[in-house]
Every structure is written in structure tokens, then in C-alpha cells.
Amino acid sequence: MNYLNLYDTAAAYIHSSFEAGVVTIMMNKPKKLNGWTNEMMDAFSSAFEKASQDELIKAVIFTGAGDYYSAGVNLGGTLKLMAPKKLHQLIVKHNEKLFDRFLTFPKPILVATNGPAIGASVTSATLCDGIIAANTSTFSTPFAALGITPEGCSSVHFARLMGDDNAQRMLGTEGWRPNGDEALAAGLVQWVVPKDHLQTEAQKIAQGWVSNARSRTILAGSELSELQAVNARESIELANRFLGADFLKGQFKFLWRKKKRMPSIVFLFLWLLRPLWKHFL
Fold it and tell me: Where does residue 254 rank: exposed (0-12), middle (13-18), buried (19+ CB within 10 A)?
């Protein structure tokens, strides 16, 4: 059955199905690479909330439709022109809430990456109970290339998962993008399977968790309270960097090249007017 068939707004972005105590929540905007617009994030957050309250659901599989798991947060579709202090507060609140949704979810979550995963879609996955990757998957956290700070607790959690060297390779200037097998060897994911077997194998793992009455755990033994504190700190650091001159200028140029005129103008105004408002943050 379609778990969201009564929720039209969510159903426009999410497809879901229920079997043997497991709900599969599938991002369903493949032509947009399952990018995390405000609408997409609202849709899967709503689906998570409903799953957390439904006693029949014992575990969740979170995955994507098409060739991409997710291209990550769509900045051009999430940031709006407003007073810089208010925008700073919004970024902090939005970022912290996004990852807190994964951290505090009370039931086991298995992330099934059906293809490339970028940015927040990677870091959020590491806050779940496990990651099963299709052999077509790659994992990219291009924070250094974008001129922003790590998010999703990755400044602490990545090193625990993969060791300091591999964490720095992904988070630093090298911008390492491990494929499925490389991510498995590094410790970022726990299973790799052919793409056409992904959903079947994910269902087997999740049903095994249900049979064993598995409780919610976080990878690498990280504690919830510590990661929540890390998330809060990273959210402030990220907001500071988002409103820095280099980032604003870079986003304007990037979006303009992509012919996304209205979002690019938002960043242009923030960049040009920054000397007037930077002292009031």
C-alpha cells in the first residue's frame, strides 16, 4: 500500500510502501536528482513523523527513485532574500532541524543509496543505523570546494566512521568521492550490492532488524547528546560561512551560469550589500 496516499503534498515528492513492519520512504523527483528543496525536505520530514507515530512500523528504509540518491540541498531553492540577521537565524534553525530529524528518529533507519549522493544527503545518512549502497553509488561532500564548513555532524562523526585520513580526504580540499566499494572499505557504508538488487536486499536487512527487535542506534557508537551539540555548533558555523563574501559571490556566479536568474540575484544583492550589513549579524 502507499503509506502516503492520503497526503497529497507529500505524495508529490515521496513514494512509500509498507511490508512486514518496514516502510520504504522513496524520494521521487528523479528528473531533479531528488534534490532537497524546501518541498522535498518537508515531504520526507512529514513521512518520518508519521512513521515515528505508527505502531505498525518498526523500521524505515530511506531511498531515492532513478539514477541519483540525492543531489543534496538545493541552495537556490531554499534561501530567500531577507534581512541578513534574520537569514542567519533561519540558516541556523533550518540546518539544525534537518539533521535533528535523523538524529532523534526513534526507530531504526536503513539508508539505501541507489546512486550518487551529495552533501547533506551523505552526512544525514551516516546519522542512521546503516547504509546499503548500490554499486552505482558515489559519495561526495564538497564543502571545501564550496567554501563552506562541514555539516551533519561530519566534523566529528566522519573520523569515527572512516578514520582521520579518509575523513579529511572527503571533507578537505581533495574532495574524495568514494564509489560503493571504496566507501565499504573505508567504513562509510556497511553493504554494497548490484543496483537491481538494492531494494530486495534492503528489505531483507530491515526485516531482520524487525525480527530481532532492534532498537535505534547511531553508527560508530556516537552518542545522541554529543552529536546534537555538534550539530548545533556546525549550524552556527555554516550560517557564518554562508553569509561570507566569498561564498555569496561564488553562489551568484554559479547560479548565473546555470541560468537560474532569480536565485542568483538573491546572492548578488547579499554580496553587494554585505559591507552595509555585516556588522549587524
Answer: middle
